[in-house]
């Protein structure tokens, strides 16, 4: 039971071109910081990407929408040539829109692939994602409409109905809806400047043991899994952003099917990290390891983590409101593993979705059963919380084996990789 025959593992926490998984609002921040970060800087520079979307941050379609918005802004300036930094969803959205508007565009991408945090992986000839997997808010998602036009196969997942695995095979789910509503009411009523921990810890400490455990599990599922950040850092009032659970479908074969389509015909320079952007009265100069280029305007779509850690030097420096926003927003860490097994050993669940709570509070993993769509026993796991420090060490095979053991033990089986 639990014979692992193939795997792939993400490393978002240490990825120099991501520096985390997705952007979040810290205790002193608000969605206004996202708006401030995306505000044009003079007439030649604009930051786009998921972090700049006030209501759809941390999602592919939010990133894409921000790229399209920035493209319209740039095209209005009647430039001859525009550069886009980054070939993730925002960068591809920007470059494609500019091309359609008749503007000459060049995309500089640091990695040797497109897609950014949609990160394709392949196991045994099947495509998976080590980053984004789902089309969220499906009914109101521009990329979902693109997936439909391309006749891509998508599979719905019900995040509200996971099977909780806790060693006995399958545990009953806590009354998640009731707890979730109580949780959200408390967070919405929190004062600005309060962290999630400020609000949640006193509440949980006042509950009797069973109720406290149920609330902690709900916090793991609703907040820790969706952020990958410490509760003491996250804004209580604004840190719980919309997205997951509002209509989710995953793309069979992976996001690559969308990104390849979006990038077709674009001038994308892979292996072109940008280190410096100089804006003057006549234009913009981008420079990096692969040389330099002069353009009339630039749209920068690199992740918030790259900007916050000065991965690119700006001359003149970014204005104070942008720098303040960078300081109040941050990146969390959620890691992913795709596991292919010789045989299916876990219980079937119609929602196709499982949760395993970790050994300590704020340690959680969620699992998608991709077996039916893939035709081979396959699980896609997401891990968040402090146990990443123990699980995500050593080489990828060791990490995959540890992740497999977590799931296998929780499902009530023994693993070939225990220990
Ligand atoms: C594990 C995980 C699971 C996720 N699951 C989902 C999901 O199911 N559904 C969903 O909607 N979203 C999900 N997301 C979030 C989603 O992937 C992102 O919000 C979205 O892809 C971000 O797009 P972007 O264009 O803003 O940034 P990115 O995709 O990060 O693109 C930025 C690009 O800039 C490049 N770059 C960085 N620095 C430089 C530089 N100096 N010079 C040149 N290029 C540079 C990067 O290599 C990258 O290609 C997930 C993310 C992760 C990590």
UniProtKB/TrEMBL annotation:
Coiled-coil positions: none
Source taxon at top rank: Bacteria
Q: Which InterPro entries match?
A: Amino_oxidase (IPR002937), FAD/NAD-bd_sf (IPR036188), Flavin_monoamine_oxidase (IPR050281)
Stretches assigned to the Amine oxidase domain:
8-72, 246-407
Q: State a single Pfam family of this protein.
A: Amino_oxidase
What name has this protein been given in UniProt?
FAD-dependent oxidoreductase
């Amino acid at each position: 039971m639990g014979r692992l025959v193939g795997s792939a593992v993400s490393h978002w926490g240490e990825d120099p071109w991501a520096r985390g998984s997705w952007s979040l609002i810290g205790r002193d921040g608000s969605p206004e910081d996202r708006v401030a970060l995306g505000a044009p800087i003079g007439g030649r520079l604009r930051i786009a990407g998921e972090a700049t979307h006030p209501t759809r941050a941390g999602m592919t379609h939010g990133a894409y929408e921000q790229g399209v918005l920035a493209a319209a802004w740039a095209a209005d300036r009647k430039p001859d040539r525009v550069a886009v930094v980054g070939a993730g969803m925002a960068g591809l959205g920007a470059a494609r829109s500019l091309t359609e508007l008749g503007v000459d565009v060049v995309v500089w991408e640091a990695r040797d692939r497109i897609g950014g945090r949609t990160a394709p992986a392949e196991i045994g000839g099947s495509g998976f994602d080590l980053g984004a997997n789902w089309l969220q808010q499906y009914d109101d998602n521009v990329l979902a409409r693109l997936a439909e036009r391309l006749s891509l196969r998508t599979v719905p997942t019900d995040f509200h109905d996971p099977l909780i695995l806790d060693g006995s095979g399958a545990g009953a789910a806590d009354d998640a809806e009731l707890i979730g509503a109580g949780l959200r009411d408390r967070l919405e009523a929190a004062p600005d400047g309060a962290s999630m921990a400020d609000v949640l810890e006193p509440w949980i400490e006042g509950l009797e043991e069973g109720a406290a455990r149920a609330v902690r599990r709900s916090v793991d599922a609703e907040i820790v899994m969706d952020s990958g950040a410490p509760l003491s850092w996250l804004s209580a009032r604004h840190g719980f952003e919309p997205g997951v659970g509002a209509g989710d479908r995953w793309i069979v074969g992976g996001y690559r099917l969308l990104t390849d389509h979006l990038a077709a015909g674009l001038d994308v320079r892979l292996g072109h990290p940008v280190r410096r952007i100089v804006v003057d009265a006549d234009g913009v100069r981008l420079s990096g390891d692969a040389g330099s280029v002069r353009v009339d305007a630039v749209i920068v779509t690199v992740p918030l983590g790259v900007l916050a850690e000065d991965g690119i030097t700006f001359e003149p420096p970014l204005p104070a409101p942008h720098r303040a926003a960078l300081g109040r927003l941050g990146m969390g860490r959620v890691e992913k593993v795709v596991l292919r097994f010789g045989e299916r050993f876990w219980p079937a669940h119609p929602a196709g979705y499982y949760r395993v709570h970790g050994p300590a509070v704020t340690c959680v993993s969620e699992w998608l059963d991709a077996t039916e769509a893939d035709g081979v026993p396959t699980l896609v796991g997401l891990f968040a919380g402090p146990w990443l420090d123990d699980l995500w060490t050593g080489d990828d095979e060791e990490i995959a084996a540890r992740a497999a053991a977590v799931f296998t033990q929780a499902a009530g089986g023994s693993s070939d990789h225990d220990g």
